Known about the structure:
- The protein is mainly β.
- The protein has helices at 2-25, 357-383, and strands at 28-29, 36-39, 44-51, 57-62, 67-71, 74-75, 82-83, 86-87, 89-94, 99-106, 115-122, 133-146, 154-157, 163-166, 169-172, 176-181, 194-195, 198-201, 210-217, 224-232, 234-240, 244-247, 255-264, 268-275, 278-281, 288-292, 304-311, 321-328, 331-341.
- 13% of the residues lie in helices and 45% in strands.
- Strands 2, 4, 5, 6, 11, 12 and 15 form a 7-stranded mixed β-sheet that branches. The chain has a 5-stranded mixed β-sheet with strand order 13-20-19-16-17, with no helix packed on it. Strands 22-29-28-24-25 form a 5-stranded mixed β-sheet, with no helix packed on it.
- The site of one 2-acetamido-2-deoxy-beta-D-glucopyranose (NAG) has 5 residues, from strand 14 and strand 18.
Amino acid sequence: MRxxxxxxxxxxxxxxxxxxxxxxxDPEIVDEIWPEVKPVGRTARLNCTVANKLNHVVTWEHMxxxxxxxxxxxxDLSYNPIEGGQRKYxxxxxxxxNRVTYMLIIRRLRQQDAGRYRCYVKIQALDFxxxxxxxxxxxxxxxxxxxxGETTTVLVxxxxxxxxxxxxATGIPAPNIxxxxxxxxxxxxxxxxxxxxxxxLLNTTVKMGGVYRCVADNNIKPPAQHLAEVxxxxxxxxRVVQDSVGQAQNRRFYAKLECITxxxxxxxxxxxxxxxxxxxxxxxxxxxxxxxxxxxxxxxKAGEQWYTLKVKNVQANDYTDYFCIATNTKGASxxxxxxxxxxxCQGPNCPSxxxxxxxxxxxxxxxxxxxxxxxxxxxxxxxx
Length: 384
Ligand SMILES: *[C@@H]1O[C@H](CO)[C@@H](O)[C@H](O)[C@H]1NC(C)=O
Ligand SMILES: *[C@@H]1O[C@H](CO)[C@@H](O)[C@H](O)[C@H]1NC(C)=O
Ligand SMILES: *[C@@H]1O[C@H](CO)[C@@H](O)[C@H](O)[C@H]1NC(C)=O
Ligand SMILES: *[C@@H]1O[C@H](CO)[C@@H](O)[C@H](O)[C@H]1NC(C)=O
């Protein structure tokens, strides 16, 4: 009994020693497979370095799709398209036989190429759980893009209400989102910039109305941007460009009255004036030209509209008070412009007059001389 027990122990020791020797000769993946990070469209290279490879087979597998890609240097995929003159997948063997690297090359990266890649060495004699194996990761970077459905484009809000401007963006890595006002002004949160996908608008004021810009950036070019407009319900306000306008009468000159309105919904505007002590509506007709300035005016703030009233052929009874009246569902407002008489024509469209009497005399003398000369030439040519 004793002897046989000793024998068994001896056999176990010998077996263990044998196994260690065998294990030492087995292939081994010696380095870590370093993670690869590359933008869409570029080429990724994952390196699996094997010692004692012998005649065992080095396999690359895309774990996320359970797809075997290669066996040693041969591609095991049924579909390995040529794109731009080169195969999508390739395996290159490098280094000496006792320490050989199988480099998996993946070209024209797409988002779905990202994930975990496993390199393993198939050893027939061993159970697959004992095969040497290491995992590397591939990150495919993607430039940011805005998700339109989840991003605010127009926000219509009541004063003093609370709301959010949301900028949803995708990209790998997840982009940083920055809000600014497109006119460079201060944000409701204070400061000129706000970091975060959701810009809160608290206790909304009319001044918070306007265009906001969000930029999504993850250092992969190009960044994405989006504009959002905030419209704040408010009763109209009216301001005038000049509160009094002069013009000379009876000489077919016109006078231009201008007012600037603001409000949401966009107010409708009408004009009135005082006629024999009472207010009288003004209609767009032979006497009056009523216009909304459509060209973008740099002097206008967000939501402002510029209106003009042209009073044609100014007469004595046109010198009175005019009202620019703006109305919307939230209220009404008006501003007054007074028209007064001047002796000379006013404004940019007046007939140009010589600047001084002296110049006038010189010009007329010259004109007389020219006329005389012309007459002489004409007479002379007639006589021929
Ligand atoms: C793999 O090896 C190649 C060649 O040495 C190298 O260019 C590449 O960057 C390596 N890949 C990684 C992920 O380190
Ligand atoms: C705005 O977003 C925050 C979270 O970012 C949320 O707690 C809040 O309820 C939102 N406010 C409104 C008015 O939707
Ligand atoms: C919002 O306005 C109300 C009333 O004006 C005020 O009591 C409250 O403190 C304000 N809240 C914030 C967050 O500013
Ligand atoms: C986001 O901004 C932080 C701070 O500026 C920066 O460290 C980080 O790299 C940025 N992230 C991306 C994806 O660009």
